């Protein structure tokens, strides 16, 4: 680890590359501690360049030999790269370097995981493999030769030839270095095939460690569904003879879209009924789709520079959300996405880490793979589609693919296709990309003489570096209901473009009840004080499923706030409304499960902060527990029947209907266990033939302070399955009583199966500690100290994951002086650690503000 003086990179400094590349040949002579990488690169000067300095990125490389046009040269080498004088015109650059994959615990570049070689090059990992212009606007075709005794040797593109000890690959599609991939290992495959819309056969494989073959079938089906969906919905066909997916145990993120060779965190692809939950299955389907969709939105059209990351990520997330909606139902998908956006992206946007969807500067680009870039980026695409309509959206996308195929493009290019395809001026809309912070839309209404007026105003709070905000274009979908529950104005899209605007609805026979921001039409916070009576009415009558759910959510949040603040009893309107929806079989179980789900404790903390108060995590915890108990008591008579109704018979299937039933059944089980001492949960645990039922039963038991025998049995049963053991680690911490959470986490770090080098295991323990809000914020500060200790230990091993998990501290300014001091102390202790990585330094500096 070197003490790099942190250098800030600015979007405004973008300059085209001085040299372009026609093709690259790479030879890898694999050896765990001394891999040789030979490169042969055809460069030519870029006619559009502003300078002619020849610079190649390179980090942690031992340079053996360099040559230009066959003549050995001695370049100038620094910690960051290599430079030398080059001839006029095109030339061939060759280098031989040595690298040490076995020592690479950062999981960035070429590294080893359980004896397998694996790469991760996004965003800037290729420079740890060889000297190269490691920037996304330099695209080239790659030919790769791998020499190793390992049986399976893979790279991008199509296979060319192979024999014992070597294999050659050729990728005909020009790509930036971040999409390069290599895998070598003792792997087995789950094969299949897909015939594309033009009749080409594509071989498909999921490669896994021996023993995991039985966990590939679902991922393979998801891949084929994704390929078909992209043809049908976006007209996009796959473009190689082969599509490989590899599962790897040690991986920093979910998965990576390398051309023709997607590399997946094992947790994001491997699934069997016995070992994966319904939520895991749904996530796997979405991630497989996401990575596959990148083949067009990311690979065929890539990003000019890393500031444009949302160009590929926002669009691809939007596409995977559409796909999941089509596969599993749009209403529940929209609710799930809004819950996640509000919980995580709004939090980011409201704190010290707020940044625009297209940032203006960064120190370490890996710190900008954020909820804002991904999820708010996707919301922007959704708003665009809503504003121009589905037909024009399709036209614009067709133009995007036709105009930019093969390009490294920008957000300006993206918006220009919409303007050109639809004639719409998007100058103001473009502010969504440059302005950080979550807009608040305030709604006030009045009614007189048949006319209903909606007064909408918008404001966005200051964020770091952006004290003043301009008005945005905000699509607000509105419907109006009369007192009898009839929809008198169907969903209408209002376009709020000014700081304040009034919208008028005429010819009404009485004051309507408004349903605002239907389908969560914009990623904004709505300030519309509706009475509990109106909210209960919307919960009962709204025709928009999102707002129907949201009305219940707002009621629940109001109940919780009043319980925390005044120890008040829950409002009858909420309890009655909830009971009615729960018992109504005309709503599908998945939707009813959403309605039963309470806001999280973190959500309640945010609601208190929004109301100008300092949250007390313990008081919030007690209010949530009290409300759950009250719900259990109130619904007591209906629970056993509802639970029985949700029984799924026959072989396990992770389809949407069965998943919805189990989701509602397990929410009910959790309530029942508060009254029956865990009797039903114990029975479910014993009978369970799938992980969803087994884990939900265990969670229900742990939540009421029971389940120790089951926990021990679970460990014995699953000790050899890493992914299931991650659940075992996480559940104990997330279900621990607040006072015990830090101790539980600390004890687990001493467990022989705790592995600091495995990001899944680290996140299982410390992600769960963060999710146990009252436990993490225990007044003793034990949670803060423990997390800081382990981040300091992890940083020299894996800076990316350390930086990511350090964001657990980003709400520190919300809390009371005592907690603030303890959190700040923990952050300062991390910041003061000698040789702290650039990743973590940037994060803790920004969080400290
Ligand atoms: N592009 C991938 C995510 C990803 C990003 C960075 C990584 O390493 C720093 C790894 C994966 C995606 O969007 O799925
Ligand atoms: Zn992505």
TrEMBL record:
Cofactors, names only: Zn(2+)
EC number: 3.4.11.2
Keyword presence, Zinc: yes
Domain (Peptidase M1 membrane alanine aminopeptidase): residue spans on this chain: 218-431
GO biological process assignments: proteolysis
Domain Peptidase M1 alanyl aminopeptidase C-terminal: residue ranges: 533-848
Pfam families noted in UniProt: DUF3458, DUF3458_C, Peptidase_M1, Peptidase_M1_N
Superkingdom assignment: Bacteria
GO molecular function: alanyl aminopeptidase activity; metallopeptidase activity; zinc ion binding
All residue ranges annotated as the Peptidase M1 alanyl aminopeptidase Ig-like fold domain in the record: 437-528
The Aminopeptidase N-like N-terminal domain, residue ranges: 82-179
Keywords: Aminopeptidase, Hydrolase, Metal-binding, Metalloprotease, Protease, Zinc
Catalytic activity: Release of an N-terminal amino acid, Xaa-|-Yaa- from a peptide, amide or arylamide. Xaa is preferably Ala, but may be most amino acids including Pro (slow action). When a terminal hydrophobic residue is followed by a prolyl residue, the two may be released as an intact Xaa-Pro dipeptide
Family affiliation: Belongs to the peptidase M1 family.
Name of the protein in question: Aminopeptidase N
Origin species: Yoonia sediminilitoris
């Amino acid at each position: 680890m070197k003490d790099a003086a942190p250098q800030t990179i600015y979007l405004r400094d973008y300059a085209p590359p001085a040299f372009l590349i026609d093709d690259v040949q790479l030879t890898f002579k694999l050896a765990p501690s001394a891999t040789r990488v030979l490169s042969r690169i055809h460069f030519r000067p870029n006619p559009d360049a502003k300078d002619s300095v020849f610079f190649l990125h390179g980090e942690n490389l031992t340079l053996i030999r360099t040559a230009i046009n066959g003549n050995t040269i001695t370049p100038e080498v620094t910690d960051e790269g290599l430079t030398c004088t080059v001839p006029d015109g095109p030339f061939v650059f060759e280098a031989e370097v040595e690298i040490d994959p076995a020592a690479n615990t950062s999981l960035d570049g070429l590294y080893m995981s359980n004896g397998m070689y694996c790469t991760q090059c996004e965003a800037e990992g290729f420079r740890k493999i060889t000297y190269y212009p490691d920037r996304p606007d330099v695209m080239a075709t790659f030919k790769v030769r791998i020499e190793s005794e390992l049986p399976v040797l893979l790279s991008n593109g199509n296979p060319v030839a192979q024999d014992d000890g070597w294999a050659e690959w050729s990728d005909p599609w020009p790509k930036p270095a971040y999409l390069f991939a290599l895998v070598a290992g003792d792997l087995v495959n789950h094969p299949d095939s897909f015939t594309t819309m033009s009749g080409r056969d594509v071989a498909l494989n999921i490669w896994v460690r021996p023993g995991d073959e039985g966990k590939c079938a679902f991922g393979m089906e998801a891949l084929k569904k994704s390929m078909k969906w992209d043809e049908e919905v976006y007209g996009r066909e796959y473009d190689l003879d082969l599509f490989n997916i590899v599962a790897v145990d040690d991986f920093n993120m979910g998965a990576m879209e390398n051309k023709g060779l997607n590399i997946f965190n094992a947790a994001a692809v491997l699934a069997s009924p016995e070992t994966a939950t319904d939520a895991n299955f749904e996530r796997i389907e979405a991630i497989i789709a996401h990575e596959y969709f990148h083949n067009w939105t990311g690979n065929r059209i890539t990003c000019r520079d890393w500031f444009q990351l949302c160009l590929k990520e926002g669009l691809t997330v939007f596409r995977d959300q559409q796909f999941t909606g089509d596969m599993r139902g749009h209403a529940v998908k929209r609710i799930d996405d809004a819950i996640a956006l509000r919980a995580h992206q709004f939090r980011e946007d409201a704190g010290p880490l707020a940044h625009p969807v297209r940032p203006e500067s960064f120190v370490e680009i890996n710190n900008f793979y954020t909820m804002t870039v991904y999820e708010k980026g996707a919301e922007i695409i959704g708003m665009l589609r809503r504003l121009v309509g589905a037909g024009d959206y399709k036209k614009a996308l067709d133009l995007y693919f036709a105009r930019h195929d093969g390009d490294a493009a920008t957000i300006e290019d993206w918006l220009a296709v919409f303007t050109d395809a639809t004639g719409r001026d998007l100058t103001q809309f473009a502010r969504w990309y440059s302005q950080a912070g979550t807009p608040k839309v305030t709604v006030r209404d009045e009614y007189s003489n048949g006319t209903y007026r909606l007064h909408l105003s918008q404001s966005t709070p200051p964020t770091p570096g952006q004290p003043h905000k301009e008005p945005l274009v905000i699509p607000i979908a509105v419907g109006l209901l009369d007192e009898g529950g009839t929809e008198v104005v169907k969903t209408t899209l209002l376009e709020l473009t000014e700081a304040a605007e009034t919208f008028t609805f005429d010819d009404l026979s009485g004051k309507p009840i408004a349903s605002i921001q239907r389908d969560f039409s914009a990623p904004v916070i709505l300030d519309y004080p509706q009475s509990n009576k109106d909210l209960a009415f919307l919960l009962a009558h709204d025709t928009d499923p999102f707002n129907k759910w949201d009305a219940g959510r707002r009621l629940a949040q109001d109940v919780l706030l009043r319980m925390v603040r005044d120890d008040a009893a829950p409002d009858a309107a909420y309890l009655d409304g909830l009971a009615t929806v729960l018992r109504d079989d005309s709503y599908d179980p998945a939707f009813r499960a959403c309605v039963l789900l309470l806001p999280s404790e973190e959500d309640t903390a945010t609601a208190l902060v929004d109301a100008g108060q300092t949250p007390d995590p313990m008081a919030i915890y007690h209010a949530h527990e009290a409300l759950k108990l009250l719900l259990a008591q109130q619904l007591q008579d209906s629970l056993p029947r509802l639970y029985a109704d949700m029984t799924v018979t026959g072989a396990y299937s992770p389809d949407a209907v069965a998943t919805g039933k189990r989701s509602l059944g397990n929410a009910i089980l959790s309530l029942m266990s508060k009254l029956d001492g865990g009797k039903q949960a114990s029975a479910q645990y014993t009978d369970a033939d799938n992980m969803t039922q087994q884990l939900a039963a265990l969670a229900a038991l742990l939540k009421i302070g029971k389940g120790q025998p089951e926990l021990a049995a679970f460990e014995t049963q699953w000790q050899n399955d890493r992914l299931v053991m991650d659940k075992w680690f996480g559940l104990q911490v997330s279900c621990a009583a607040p006072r015990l959470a830090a101790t539980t986490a600390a004890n687990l770090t001493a467990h022989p199966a705790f592995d600091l080098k495995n990001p899944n295991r680290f996140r299982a323990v410390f992600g769960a500690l963060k999710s146990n809000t009252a436990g993490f914020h225990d007044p003793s500060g034990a949670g803060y100290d423990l997390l800081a200790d382990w981040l300091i230990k992890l940083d020299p091993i894996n800076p990316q994951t350390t930086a990511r998990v350090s964001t657990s501290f980003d709400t520190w300014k919300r809390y009371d002086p005592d907690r603030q001091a303890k959190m700040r102390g923990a952050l300062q202790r991390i910041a003061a650690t000698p040789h702290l990585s650039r990743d973590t330094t940037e994060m803790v500096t920004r969080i400290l503000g």
